[in-house]
């Protein structure tokens, strides 16, 4: 269970929790911030009790302030479990599918998560069915096994999806999956717990690439998995202990430092993204913009109902095909061409430059991760790059 250092203020807002959770006890002379704890080993004799500090792969206080903070932000009864990377946390969550079991997953999930699912299919006989996660009835038919199979063991959800920005109907999917006896895991990396809290919709497991918004400064690779249920939490913890994909103390310390400014960063990045989406929709060099903030975006109504904002990732298709999209990436000066997202720095890339990206993602789609720079500077750079790409084409 969580140590409740903010028990005196049980109902504070998430933006406050992001700043205050996980602090050391308030005693005169004590440091305000948790220290970096460097030890593999804790002094211990005799038969250890549950939770007694023993050994750094099993558990270490180096992780606790971050784990407590993320647990509280997601509204979980348990602290988060920090992992060496988002993929290590995702591997732990996918271990909840038994060998020979069934897994339903978004066609446009994070491509390495899809690769891991293919690996499970080959090595463990897991049957993987890919779906369009925004088509609720089709997803639930797949979960129930209406086409003749058995019900799924796990429904994997990303919302909004990477990089297509489809929005899943979280309450309907969770309710339908639970009726069919399936667990629901949500990759909440794109939204962050300030924008979307899957446990409030009944999800069983939440995972994060902490690398992205939570750490937020493009300087840490880290992951986390959370479960509200005691048994699921224990299974994820046991997986981490046995597979050993644990996080280093410095990375976790940096991630907590990042979380302290999460609310400000997300607020600014979302505002920038919505403004850029609005302007891009009217740009002569742009064929398509996907962002749930746009009133005519297919995900707008759902996002408005279940999210606290619309996130800061855009999908943009320039006019002129792949050559124009590549020309935009070449022409930007302030935006960084790079494959990550969720940092303070604005980044973009053409996703299909990777042979492993889903073939249903348009070849000419650019994914933009909008950062916290001045929006006029971001716009001026995009505008000149789009215009230059059109001139090159024309
Ligand atoms: C980056 C990312 C991951 C993988 O996380 P790593 O920290 O790179 O291992 C998983 N899901 C989503 C949505 C991501 O963006």
UniProtKB/TrEMBL annotation:
Write the record's keywords in alphabetical order, separated by commas. Answer: Pyridoxal phosphate
Indicate yes or no for the key word Oxidoreductase: no
DNA-binding listed as a keyword: no
Q: What does the record give under GO molecular function?
A: cystathionine gamma-lyase activity; homocysteine desulfhydrase activity; methionine gamma-lyase activity; pyridoxal phosphate binding
List of residues that carry N6-(pyridoxal phosphate)lysine: 212
Q: Which GO terms describe its cellular component?
A: cytoplasm
- Ranges for the region named Disordered are 1-31
Q: Which family does it belong to?
A: Belongs to the trans-sulfuration enzymes family.
Q: What is this protein called?
A: homocysteine desulfhydrase
Source organism per UniProt: Cellulomonas cellasea DSM 20118
Q: What is the lineage of its organism?
A: Bacteria, Bacillati, Actinomycetota, Actinomycetes, Micrococcales
């Amino acid at each position: 269970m969580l140590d409740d250092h903010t028990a005196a203020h049980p109902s504070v807002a998430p933006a406050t929790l992001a700043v205050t959770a996980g602090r050391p006890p308030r005693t005169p002379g004590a440091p305000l911030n948790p220290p970096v704890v460097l030890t593999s080993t804790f002094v211990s004799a005799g038969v250890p009790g549950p939770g007694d500090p023993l050994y750094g792969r099993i558990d270490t206080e180096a992780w606790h302030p971050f784990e407590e903070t993320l647990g509280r932000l997601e509204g979980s009864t348990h602290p988060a479990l920090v992992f060496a990377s988002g993929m290590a946390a995702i591997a732990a969550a996918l271990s909840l599918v038994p060998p020979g079991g069934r897994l339903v997953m978004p066609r446009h999930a994070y491509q390495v998560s899809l690769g891991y699912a293919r690996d499970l299919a080959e090595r463990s006989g897991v049957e993987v069915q890919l779906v369009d996660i925004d088509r609720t009835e089709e997803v639930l038919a797949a979960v129930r096994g209406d086409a003749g199979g058995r019900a799924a063991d796990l429904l994997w959800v990303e919302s909004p999806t990477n990089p297509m920005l489809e929005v899943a109907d979280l309450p309907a999917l969770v309710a339908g999956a639970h009726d069919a006896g399936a667990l629901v895991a949500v990759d909440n990396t794109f939204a962050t717990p300030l924008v979307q809290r899957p446990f409030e919709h009944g999800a069983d497991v939440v995972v994060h690439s902490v690398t992205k918004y939570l750490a937020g400064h493009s300087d840490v690779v880290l992951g986390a998995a959370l479960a509200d249920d005691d048994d699921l939490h224990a299974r994820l913890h046991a997986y981490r202990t046995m597979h050993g994909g644990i996080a280093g103390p410095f990375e976790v310390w940096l991630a907590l430092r990042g979380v302290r400014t999460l609310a400000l960063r997300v607020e600014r990045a979302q505002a920038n993204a919505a403004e850029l989406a609005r302007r891009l929709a009217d740009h002569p060099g742009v064929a398509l913009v996907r962002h749930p903030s746009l009133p005519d975006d297919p995900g707008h109504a759902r996002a408005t109902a279940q999210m606290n904002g619309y996130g800061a990732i855009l999908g943009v298709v320039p006019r002129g095909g792949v050559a124009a999209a590549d020309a935009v990436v070449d022409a930007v000066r302030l935006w960084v061409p790079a494959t990550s997202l969720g940092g303070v720095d604005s980044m973009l890339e053409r996703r299909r430059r990777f042979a492993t990206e889903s073939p249903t993602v348009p070849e000419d789609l650019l994914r933009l991760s909008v950062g916290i720079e001045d929006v006029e500077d971001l716009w001026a750079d995009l505008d000149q790059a789009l215009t230059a790409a059109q001139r090159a084409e024309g």
